[in-house]
Every structure is written in C-alpha cells, then in structure tokens.
Specification:
The protein is mainly β. It is about 10% helix and about 40% strand. The chain has a 29-stranded parallel beta sheet that branches.
C-alpha cells in the first residue's frame, strides 16, 4: 500500500513538472512570453539571454509567437528562428543595449559587413540568416539607442543633402590600429534579414536607429506593411528600408522620416553565398516619406536591378526625390545595371533635385535604361538632371503627365545650374504632356539647347521662358 502511494506521488509530481515546463514554454495559443524566460521590464537589465531562450524554445516547439509584453526591455543581438514571429505588443519597447559588447561581432555570419569609413560595425539588434517563415510585428516600438553613439550634428554651408546637419559616430578612434577602430564603431544595421525567405514585417515602429533601420540582403518573398520610422534628419546612415539583391518584395502603407535614404534598392551581392542574386520584382507603394539625403536611391553595387514599381508616394522633403546612380563608389567601379523601373503618382515638395539619373563615377560602364515616370508633381529648387560619362549614358527615359515647379532655393549655393530640365545626357528620351512653372527667377533655360540635335521627342509640353514667371 505504501509503495502504491509512493508511485502515485511520483506520477503526480512528474505530471506537475510537465505542466510547469509547458506553461513556461507557451500557453495553449503557442505564444511564448519573454518574461516567463526571465526577461526583466526595468529598462536596465540586458535581457538578451532570456529573449533568445524564448526564441529558441519557440523554434523547438515547431514555431509560434514570441511575445514582448508592455514595458521597456533592453537587449543585445537576437537571432530569429524558422517559423517564428517576434511580436512587440502595444506598449512594448525593445531597446537596443548601450553597450557595444552586447552586439554580435563581424564574424557572426559570413555575409556580415562593417564600414570604417562611415563609422558603423557588424553588430545588429535583430538578425535572421538563412531562415524561412519568419515575422517581426507590432504595434510595439524598437528603439535603436543611436543617441548614445552619435555626436552633435555639424553643418556644411551650401549642402543640398543634410541641410539639417550631419551627426556621425562620436569618440571614434582614428589611429592606425584596426581593432581599436572596430571597438569604437557604433552598431550597424538595426534589423538584418540575410538570404532568408517568406518574411513579414508589419505594424512595427522604429526610432533612433544607429544605422540602416531594416536591411534585406539576398532575400525572397518579403512583405512589409504599416511600418513607421522616426529618425532625426541629421543621423548619419540612418536609411529606412534597404532592399539589396532581393526577389519579390512588396512594401506598402509605411511612413518613413529619416536622415539618409528612406528607401534604397541596391544590387550588391558580393558578400552573399549566392553571388548571382539580382534585385528584381520590387513593389513600393502608398507611403509617406522624408529624407535629408536621397528619398529613393536606386543603385549601389555591381549587380543588377530590374522590374521595380514605385507608386502613390508623398515625399515631404529630400535632397533628391528619385535618385538613380549605377556606380556609387570606387569599390564598385562598373556599377549596377538598372532597367525597367516605373515611378507613378508621386508628389514631392521641398526637394533639391526632383529626379537625378547618373552613371555616378567616371569608371561606370553599367546600363541605366527603360525608366518611366508618369504623374510626377515636384516642387524642386534644382530641377531634373540626366547625365552621362564617356562609357555609358542613360537610355530610353520617358516622362509623361508630369508637372514641375521651379521653387525658391532655401540654400545659399556658390554655383547655381542654369538649365531646369538638364536632361541632355540621356539618349532616346521622351517628354509628353510635361509642364514647368517658374517661381524662382534664377534659371536661364528650361531645357538644354543640345536637345535639338539628339534623339529626343517632345510632345505637347509647356516649357515657358524662365524670365516670364
């Protein structure tokens, strides 16, 4: 009888232990609350280990939701897992650690990168490499703690981009020792998805990012919606969403206010495992955006970008509204081949260049071709520019049903361009139903004289004399 009672007690104890483990791992809905794994909501404790335990347990159970409840949770680098959603509940704040040592190192994964020149490291807050069926959702907030790593903004007279100043890494070591430089860099891209697929990012708020907010590198089948980004306009390298060598990406209904590029569509597969990846089938629509630099940057790298659709966009402010540049720097002297890009129903105000299309560096040989602009309204103080170099020229550029206003210039410039639609560097350019209105009287020409001798078509356009406002 005593033995039977002992056995019954053992069975009951085992059952209670199993129930306890189950309750720690997840509730009946498959939700893993990070506080059950030891995460502290005091805004001081670094919860990296506790949150990662919840992510690992979620994957081990076959997937589910890792929930960050209301409150401020400090963390270093977190790694997302297959079939897992990291959800920040309403009132939740995931705050990036103020300690550089809490972030992953450059060798955390082979595709990782850093920039001594720009002042950021290979450390990130949220990372997913080679994963599938992953999600990051709100309505909570991610705070990148950039104010702890960036100095005061510095102003440059006559700057078209970064009119509000430029704040870079403070206390950066500039000596000859690489490891000391690396140790002084601010954290890099806040959120990184690399060579992953089936990704959803929704309804999240991001602020105070020390580098690019969201970096998609070599990914497939990505859906981004309802993202809100707030960075001061003087934060260095504070890109909103960077899409690099990705396929089938849809971004919609986002609001991005930042310092550097609000959107960058790039073709730089060098660090990827699959170096043949191209950036293709990208759709960006229904967004309100602002940038102190280029609002949309199309280019960077030496790969390929094609089939991009940008539509229904309201640009509040920018150095350049739509910037196409095949070769960004000497690190990619050939540049990116860019083709089949359509931009429609875009309104922009308070921008330097409305549209700028250029090979970039003198060494660029890559092609920029088959760009289509329809329904553009732009109040711009530098106009439109299409340029060529000795090796290559943008070709088959079409502007239709668009209105440009030569606005007052808010910047003191030593040299002011004389031609508002300075598009003489292009080949086979078409302007149809395009009008220009001059508010600023400083312009000398609406279009360059050289157009008369090139393969341009001008159909039903209104190009007044700039002297007659």
């Amino acid at each position: 009888m005593k033995i039977a009672k002992n056995r019954m007690g053992f069975v009951l104890l085992t059952f209670l232990m199993i129930c306890a483990v189950y309750s720690v791992e997840a509730n009946e809905s498959g939700i893993f609350d990070i506080t059950r794994y030891g995460a502290k909501v005091d805004g001081k404790t670094v919860n990296t280990e506790a949150i990662q335990k919840a992510l690992d347990a979620c994957e081990a159970r076959g997937g589910g939701i890792v929930s960050v409840p209301p409150g401020i949770f400090v963390s270093g680098t977190l790694y997302l897992k297959d079939h897992t959603e990291l959800r920040l509940e309403r009132g939740a704040v995931l705050k990036a650690s103020p300690n550089r040592k809490d972030y992953c190192s450059l060798d955390a994964y082979p595709q990782n990168g850093e920039s001594f020149h720009e002042g950021w490291s290979g450390g990130h807050l949220i990372v997913a490499v080679g994963k599938s069926d992953i999600a990051l959702s709100g309505p909570g907030l991610i705070d990148g703690s950039a104010d702890l790593f960036l100095g005061e903004p510095r102003f440059t007279e006559g700057a078209i981009g970064w009119r509000h100043g430029f704040a870079n890494t403070k206390d950066k070591y500039n000596g000859p020792e690489e490891e000391k430089i690396r140790a002084s860099l601010r954290p890099g891209q806040l959120i990184v998805f690399c060579e992953s697929r089936d990704i959803r990012i929704s309804d999240i708020s991001i602020k105070n990012s020390p580098c690019w907010c969201c970096f998609l590198h070599g990914c497939e089948d990505v859906f981004i919606s309802g993202v809100k980004i707030d960075n001061p306009p003087y934060f260095a390298n504070s890109d909103g969403i960077d899409i690099d060598s990705c396929s089938r990406v849809i971004v919609s209904d986002c609001r991005i206010l930042t310092g550097d590029d609000a959107f960058a569509v790039r073709g730089n597969p060098r660090r990827l495992t699959d170096k043949n990846r191209v950036c293709e089938h990208i759709v960006i629509n229904n967004c309100v955006v602002s940038s102190a630099s280029s609002v949309f940057r199309i280019g960077v790298g030496d790969g390929t970008i094609h089939d991009v659709l940008i539509s229904n966009i309201d640009i509040i402010e920018g150095g350049t509204g739509l910037h196409f540049q095949s070769s960004y720097s000497a690190r990619a002297p050939k540049g990116v081949n860019i083709s089949r890009v359509r931009c429609s129903n875009i309104s922009m105000r308070n921008v330097g260049w409305a549209i700028k299309i250029t090979p970039g560096t003198k060494t660029a040989t890559a092609k920029i071709e088959d760009l289509f602009f329809d329904g553009i309204y732009a109040e711009t103080f530098l106009g439109v520019n299409i340029s060529a170099n000795e090796n290559t020229a943008p070709e088959r550029i079409t502007f239709r049903n668009s209105n440009f206003v030569a606005a007052e210039n808010p910047i003191k410039m030593k040299i002011f361009p004389d031609t508002f639609l300075d598009i003489g560097g292009g080949k086979n350019t078409v302007l149809e139903n395009v009008s220009v209105r001059f508010v600023n009287p400083n312009w000398k020409k609406t279009i360059p004289d050289s157009l008369k001798d090139q393969s341009f078509r001008i159909i039903n356009c209104n190009f007044p004399d700039p002297s007659n406002k």
